[in-house]
Specification:
alpha/beta, seven-stranded mixed sheet, 34% helix
């Protein structure tokens, strides 16, 4: 068993498919973005805030994992869209371009010892026509997603190629996360 400090159904599904039993304890930590940090440091910082908040609150007897996934375009973080107009603007920016997906992961052992990392994946979108963007937005899928898309869902049609971890783009670099959990005493 491990504690997952996240409400993300994608992280939960990835870890469960890999054989882990989870206790879900969503974090209430501040997830604000510090524009002075580089993408990797920012993702690690937010993940660490989440991990620290849950660890202090529940003092787990098993490893705890927290993560945060951010999308960056031209060095600027794209969060979750505020509304359909915001989603459209994001997707228009990403159309035909390369962007980065960075996930910070923090694993905390019951002793309080931490392991941290950030994984970056480059994603190239194909050039999309306006009607494709509008039809995708109409599905509702972009609305709770960093960068306004879900690669594992309908949004996969926009991805021309990627360099790096596919599961990182989904929301958790699974191979790296499993290694961190094992190093902290976790076993599936």
């Amino acid at each position: 068993m491990i504690v997952l400090a996240s409400q993300s159904p994608r992280r939960r599904e990835l870890l469960q498919r890999a054989g882990w039993t989870l206790e879900i304890v969503p974090s209430t930590a501040d997830e604000s973005i510090d524009p002075l940090l580089d993408p990797e440091a920012l993702a690690r910082s937010i993940a660490e805030r989440k991990a620290d908040e849950v660890f202090r609150r529940i003092r787990p007897t098993v490893p705890l994992l927290a993560a945060d996934t951010l999308v960056f375009y031209k060095g600027k973080a794209l969060g979750k869209p505020d509304d359909e107009t915001h989603a459209r603007k994001m997707l228009e920016q990403l159309s035909g371009a390369v962007h980065e997906v960075v996930t910070g992961v923090v694993v905390v052992a019951p002793s309080g010892r931490k392991s941290r990392l950030a994984v970056k994946t480059s994603v190239r979108f194909r050039a999309m026509e306006e009607h494709e963007i509008l039809r995708y937005i109409a599905t509702g899928e972009p609305m709770d997603r960093a960068g306004a898309y879900a690669i594992q869902g309908i949004g996969g049609f926009m991805v021309e190629s990627l360099e790096g971890s596919y599961t990182n783009v989904v929301g958790l670099p699974l191979g790296e996360s499993i290694e961190m959990l094992r190093a902290m005493g976790g076993r599936p």
